[in-house]
Design brief:
5-stranded mixed beta sheet; 20% strand; 309 residues; alpha+beta; 12 strands; Immunoglobulin-like
């Protein structure tokens, strides 16, 4: 389920798109083969075998009636099946996703639009329930796409787009920005993690609370260094003095599958590498490289962040 493919579907919306795609592909292939057969006959067949192709009935039937009937039927069927993509039932959960340079800010909001939970680059949802995604952008055009669950929808400056879809079974589904948005567009991915409803409620309740205070000396040292090096100016860790809003919320970063918007798996090594060489690993992103930190300091900060889970 880590495969990012429109042909590996685990949601009703993606299933409709897959069916529509296969019918269109098959229809296009059959028409292409028909045209190639007729073209071959027209070029290579003897005159006595292709004379019927110049008749009035052939031209009107295959040149006018057939395309009109076929394309009209496909259009009507396509519009009919596409109506199922519009979910009319009330969403079980509303999530606001904001595209930034080059990562995803995630807000879990209530019916009044109040933010209840903040995350980044990873979206957890309950299975079998319609989820409403409110899509915005902080800068340029991005495009929100989880091919195994639903179609893509653009995030346009000055506009708010809304889409709804659900996941049929628990799993991890990779998403991607599908609109070129700058130098690191290819490294702007995210994950949708579908949990059973009970697992989701447990996660949601725990995620709303601050992480436990570190007690291991290395982690305590990492938390101090995190604060002393000004990380809290850009990042938030709930329950601490770190309250920055420029970068991703790091409250439970250690529990996420990846860092840097799906670029690297989350572990102490990648966290340390990212802190020291963010501009080398993902040039032009808004995270500066902290090359001034020594190895021991990097390990302490990375271990502290990895413990936030």
């Amino acid at each position: 389920m880590w495969i990012q493919s429109t042909m590996v579907t685990y949601g009703p919306h993606a299933g409709v798109i897959e069916t529509l795609s296969w019918v269109m592909f098959t229809g296009a292939l059959l028409i292409f083969l028909l045209v190639m057969v007729l073209a071959t006959l027209a070029i290579f067949a003897p005159d006595r075998m292709r004379g019927w192709m110049t008749g009035r009935n052939f031209i009107i039937g295959l040149g006018i009636v057939f395309p009109v009937v076929t394309l009209t039927a496909l259009l009507v069927w396509g519009l009919t099946i596409s109506r199922t993509l519009v979910t009319v039932e009330n969403p079980a959960l509303r999530i606001e996703v904001i595209g930034e340079r080059w990562w995803w800010r995630v807000h879990y909001v209530d019916a009044e639009g109040q933010i209840r939970l903040v995350s980044a680059n990873e979206i957890k949802i309950p299975t079998g329930r319609p989820i409403e995604f409110v899509l915005k952008t902080q800068d340029v055009i991005h495009s929100f796409w989880v091919p195994s669950l639903a179609g893509k929808l653009d995030m346009i400056p000055g506009r708010v787009n809304v889409t709804r879809f659900s996941a049929e079974r628990p799993g991890i589904y990779r998403g991607q920005c599908a609109e070129y948005c700058g130098a690191q567009h290819a490294l702007m991915a995210f994950y949708v993690v579908a949990l059973t409803p009970d697992e989701f409620e447990t996660w949601y309740a725990r995620e709303a609370t601050p992480p436990a205070e570190p007690v291991i000396p290395l982690l305590v040292r990492g938390k101090v260094l995190f604060r002393e090096n000004g990380c809290g100016a850009c990042h938030t860790v709930r329950g601490t003095s770190a309250g920055g809003l420029i970068g991703p919320d790091l409250t439970y970063v250690g529990a996420r599958l990846s860092i840097a918007a799906g670029t690297y798996p989350t572990n102490v090594g990648t966290l340390a590498g990212w802190i020291s060489s963010a501009q080398h690993l993902k040039p032009d992103n808004l995270m500066p490289s902290f090359g001034n930190l020594q190895g021991e300091e990097l390990r302490a900060i990375a271990a502290y962040l990895e413990s936030l889970k």
